[in-house]
Automatic annotation (TrEMBL):
This is GDP-fucose protein O-fucosyltransferase-domain-containing protein. GO terms for molecular function: transferase activity. The chain crosses the membrane at residues 5-28. It comes from Glomus cerebriforme. InterPro entries: GDP-Fuc_O-FucTrfase. GO terms for biological process: fucose metabolic process. The keyword Cell membrane does not apply. Keywords: Carbohydrate metabolism, Fucose metabolism, Membrane, Transferase, Transmembrane, Transmembrane helix.
């Protein structure tokens, strides 16, 4: 009897130790797909160890306010992802505000919140009454995850899509079960356009960009005990003044991984690119001309920017044309052939021009203005084979006309066309953009991702 009892005790101990081992080394996965355990997140933190260890078991949040055009909103999101990571807070992610005209400008916190809430509330009423495709319906809101590759984001931060469509702060508080905003919310409200820059090294004593007025140490934000940190605008490519390598590396990775991943956009972009010879077979150009009204910044410099691009092309294209698509080779092999329906558009153009011109590159020109804009005259006079989206490839956009926003059913055609323009320009072997254009900056990033520097 004692021997049986002894065997029972031994068996029980073995089972107990095995279960304990599994619990410790193989914990249950989280309920949310993009959730990261606090233990894992803490191990990812950089050398700034400012957290109060007593607070690491309580989930905390952060959010910000979107404004301006698509690329300004994208830069704000990239900055928010970095802050979410470095502060170890779940990001309440506002949607992309897609508008028929730019009516939410960059403003200080309180003004921006009132503009967003007022305009979005009124727009929701209008769209509900007249329909999402009526011209008076000015906005649609698209979750970033519908457009971008979120693999890197899911791996590194926790996030929740913000669902209150009129950006009502009281609805946000209700969702987070915040009953006392004064003690549970820390609002970092800008009073000027670029009030503060975030920094991570106590040896930094001044801003790295003169547009900013003040410095805020990331460590001071890490120590905040409030449930929610609410930023206003966090737009600007130089919003961070960083010295720690891990921080610099992570922010760089965020930006490198913010890549368009919408299947329809990529499919159309690839088809048009094939008509130009395929990936890495032409030069992509983005020229933002603007005008002298709303878009004064680029309108005033339009001619200067056209000349700048022409100079770059004249100096560089001969040495940069890849050997696999040498126009001289095409000239030799096709000199006596007549264009057929099966020829790609770039080939048709090459065969239609004189032999003396066939050393010029194939160019895809993305722009906010049509081909007949007088400021393009000099450009088209210099290069014989220049292609533009609506002049040459409009038929490929038919597939885009049926794409709807899952949130409200609004057609996304008008908002997605510029992205296709950028995708095609990015797929050339070389890309030349417009100085100071956030769109050009993003196309250059896509180019580096798909083609290389």
């Amino acid at each position: 009897m004692s021997q049986r009892y002894f065997l029972f005790i031994i068996t029980f101990l073995i089972i107990y130790l095995a279960v304990l081992y599994l619990i410790i080394y193989f914990p249950l996965s989280g309920q949310i797909s993009n959730e990261i355990s606090y233990k894992e997140k803490t191990s990812q933190l950089n050398t700034l160890s400012c957290f109060d260890s007593n607070d690491l078991n309580e989930e905390k949040y952060m959010t910000y306010l979107p404004h301006s055009g698509f690329n300004n909103q994208r830069i704000s999101l990239e900055n928010a992802i970095f802050l979410s990571w470095v502060l170890n807070r779940t990001l309440i992610m506002p949607p992309i505000l897609l508008t028929k005209k730019s009516i939410i400008p960059h403003r200080p916190f309180n003004i921006l919140y009132r503009m967003l809430n007022g305009n979005l509330t009124q727009n929701m009423i209008t769209c509900k009454r007249r329909g999402v495709e009526d011209k008076s319906c000015m906005f649609t809101q698209l979750d970033w995850e519908e457009l971008m590759n979120f693999k890197f984001i899911k791996k590194n931060i926790r996030y929740i899509h913000r669902e209150d469509q009129n950006l009502d702060v009281n609805e946000l508080y209700s969702f987070l079960k915040i009953k006392d905003p004064e003690s549970q919310v820390f609002t970092l409200a800008e009073e000027t356009r670029y009030d503060f820059q975030f920094y991570d090294d106590e040896n930094i004593s001044k801003v790295s960009d003169d547009q900013f007025d003040h410095l805020i140490h990331i460590c001071s934000l890490q120590r905040r005990k409030e449930k929610l940190i609410h930023f206003g605008s966090i737009y600007h490519l130089n919003r961070f003044n960083l010295k720690y390598k891990e921080n610099i590396k992570f922010l760089k990775s965020v930006r490198e991984n913010m890549i368009i991943n919408h299947p329809v956009l990529l499919n159309i972009g690839e088809k048009i690119s094939e008509q130009l010879g395929g990936l890495g077979s032409y030069i992509g150009i983005h020229l933002r001309l603007g005008d002298n009204g709303f878009d004064k910044k680029f309108g005033a410099k339009a001619e200067e920017n056209v000349n700048l691009v022409l100079t770059k092309l004249s100096n560089e294209f001969e040495s940069d044309v890849p050997s696999s698509t040498s126009l001289d080779e095409i000239e030799v092999s096709t000199n006596n052939l007549v264009p057929t329906k099966n020829m790609i558009e770039s080939e048709k153009c090459i065969r239609s021009i004189s032999p003396e011109q066939r050393h010029y590159p194939i160019i895809y020109l993305a722009s906010d203005k049509p081909r007949n804009d007088v400021r393009f005259k000099k450009f088209f006079r210099e290069f014989p084979c220049v292609f533009m989206l609506f002049s040459n490839f409009e038929k490929y956009l038919d597939q885009l006309k049926g794409v709807k926003n899952p949130r409200d059913g609004a057609l996304l055609y008008r908002y997605f066309v510029p992205l296709i323009d950028g995708i095609v320009a990015a797929r050339g072997f070389k890309f030349v953009g417009t100085p100071e254009s956030t769109f050009s900056d993003y196309v250059a990033r896509l180019h580096e991702y798909w083609v290389g520097s």
